[in-house]
Specification:
- The complex is a heterodimer of chains A (about 250) and B (about 230).
- Chain A has about 250 residues and is mainly alpha-helical.
- Chain A has helices at about 15-20, 20-35, 45-60, 60-70, 70-85, 100-125, 130-140, 145-175, 185-215, 230-254, and strands spanning about 90-95, 100.
- Chain A is flat, with a radius of gyration of 24 Å.
- The two termini of chain A are about 45 Å apart.
- With about 230 residues, chain B is mostly helical.
- Chain B has eight helices and two strands; from the N terminus they run H-H-E-E-H-H-H-H-H-H.
- Chain B has a two-stranded antiparallel ribbon with strand order 1-2.
- In chain B, strand 1 and strand 2 (about 65) form a beta hairpin.
- Chain B is elongated.
- Classes of the chains: A mainly alpha (about 250), B mainly alpha (about 230).
- Chains A and B meet through helix 2, helix 5, helix 6, helix 8 and helix 9 of A and helix 1, helix 2, strand 1, helix 4 and helix 8 of B.
Chain lengths: ~250, ~230
């Protein structure tokens, strides 16, 4: 399940990898928020430079970023292609009935740059540490234990559910079910498939809970520790917050 | 139907997070009032993972195929765990598949999760009125259809309402037309969602009614054989 291997490169060594997970969450999220607030085209170069700088510091391979940007890239391409043709009134170039409009083009550039910058920083955030460390950091920052427990269970059993669905679908195809065409039996069959998967999930969850209770789950509250930040972590956080504040102030002033 | 990062103004994203925080607080408060809140965590998580995977199924609707939202079903089956489950599923979608976004997580969670809470309340009320019961397949199916459709309809309205009022308006008339057209395009999906919810609920009613909050029927008593008279010694 390559889609789930978000932290494939979490083992690398880089300043981003060494940054305390809690401070990294706060710092990079602040940068992402600041990027989302940018609405002036003059701030696009520093915003893209900031995203590129974060990515360079992580030493993650470019192919990792490109593979993650593939799906949202379709959306960005659609925006870049359609908005200049549909939105705005000042025509830049006209070829027959097709007119490229200035306002649409500028808006498309703004949205495209924001999407790419924010996604790049989010990939640095989640790609530079194991996912379980991210969940621990969220718990340390105050996320309720119920939510972190649900995240961990969800993460642990998602691939099991996916494999179960794949087996059940293969069993359907082997018995002659034509799922690609809409017929009278299509929806009832898919509903039975979904219902069966939910019943199996339910039965497995009961076994999981009983097994965990036998091992002491729920008997004591989990402490919000496990991290030890250094002065350089705090300095990096201050720098990140400064960059974010700079972007926001520039957005307000310009 | 997920809103990606970089599209919405930051103020809308902040409002989304505020509403999500409120709904999460409400859900956690209700969950902590249950007799054994911890017992529901693995159940809700694994069912949420199951729903997440089920939503990947392509339902063929000519000329294309669609993925179902299933937020109505999630609300009906998970109860107060529905909103946290949807929040977590959206978080995973944003992080693992870059579908949706982290900054728009609040808006997306409110858009999909708030109607799920409504679905739970309506389903609970229907169960209290005896509409969801072992011997009431048609009523169960009808209620599930209505709740499943209504939940998605509300999500669609929130989705387009947020876009209508927040995205930079260069050509408001064109934007309004495009959004109204897209909203009408969701009507078939709303009906299909309702039908799917009804089919799943009637299936569960027959096979595992406990998932619908209906206690399993007591096993029928075995017939007792008449006592054989003792053999007479002649």
């Amino acid at each position: 399940m390559s889609l789930f291997l978000l932290d494939t490169y979490a083992h690398l060594q880089s300043p981003m990898h060494r940054w305390d997970a809690r401070y990294k969450l706060i710092g990079l999220l602040a940068i992402m928020v600041a990027m989302a607030a940018v609405n002036d085209l003059r701030l696009l170069p520093p915003m893209l430079l900031l995203a590129a700088g974060c990515f360079a510091l992580s030493r993650l391979p470019v192919r990792y970023l490109l593979s993650r940007l593939r799906y949202p890239g379709f959306f960005v391409m659609a925006v870049l292609l359609l908005m200049p043709l549909l939105a705005g009134s000042s025509v830049l170039v006209q070829v027959g009935p097709i007119a490229v409009r200035r306002e649409g083009l500028l808006l498309a550039l703004l949205i495209g740059a924001r999407v790419v910058s924010i996604l790049t920083v989010s990939m640095v955030l989640f790609g530079s540490q194991p996912f379980l460390t991210t969940v621990q950091a969220l718990h340390a920052l105050g996320l309720p234990a119920l939510l972190t427990d649900m995240i961990l269970f969800f993460y642990r059993y998602l691939s099991d559910m996916a494999a179960m669905l794949e087996r059940m679908q293969r069993a359907l195809w082997l018995r002659g079910f034509q799922g690609q065409r809409l017929q009278r039996t299509t929806l009832p069959t898919y509903a039975a498939l979904a219902g069966s998967l939910l019943i199996r999930s339910y039965a497995q969850s009961e076994r999981v809970y009983q097994a965990m209770r036998l091992r002491g789950y729920g008997s004591t509250a989990r402490p919000r520790t496990g991290f030890a930040a250094t002065p350089s972590d705090a300095l990096a956080l201050a720098l990140a917050l400064l960059c974010a504040a700079g972007l926001v102030v520039a957005t307000v002033v310009l | 139907m997920h809103l990606a990062d970089g599209i919405l103004p930051i103020t809308i994203c902040a409002a989304g997070y505020a509403s999500t925080a409120s709904l999460t607080w409400l859900s956690l408060r209700q969950i902590n009032r249950l007799p054994d809140p911890q017992a529901g965590i693995p159940r809700a998580s694994l069912l949420a993972a199951g729903f997440f995977v089920v939503s990947w199924i392509h339902i063929p609707i000519p000329p294309t195929s669609v993925h179902l939202m299933l937020n109505g079903l999630i609300g009906m089956l998970l109860g107060w765990y529905a909103f946290p489950a949807i929040l977590i599923a959206l978080f995973f979608q944003a992080v693992m598949f870059q579908h949706g976004g982290l900054l728009t997580l609040g808006v997306n969670a409110t858009m999909i999760g708030a109607p799920a809470i409504l679905a739970h309340l309506l389903f609970q009320r229907a169960r209290q009125h005896g509409l969801i019961a072992l011997h009431r397949q048609i009523a169960t199916g009808s209620v599930s259809f209505l709740i499943g459709s209504l939940t998605l309809a509300i999500s669609v309205l929130i989705f387009f309402g947020v876009q209508l009022f927040s995205i930079d308006q260069i050509d408001p008339q064109l934007q309004r037309t495009a959004l109204i057209t897209a909203t009408l395009g969701y009507l078939p999906l709303i009906l299909i969602e309702g039908v799917f919810a009804a089919l799943v609920c009637t299936f569960l009613l027959r096979v595992q009614p406990a998932l619908l909050g209906i206690p399993a029927p007591a096993p029928a008593a075995l017939p007792t054989l008449p006592a054989t008279p003792p053999a007479q010694e002649g």
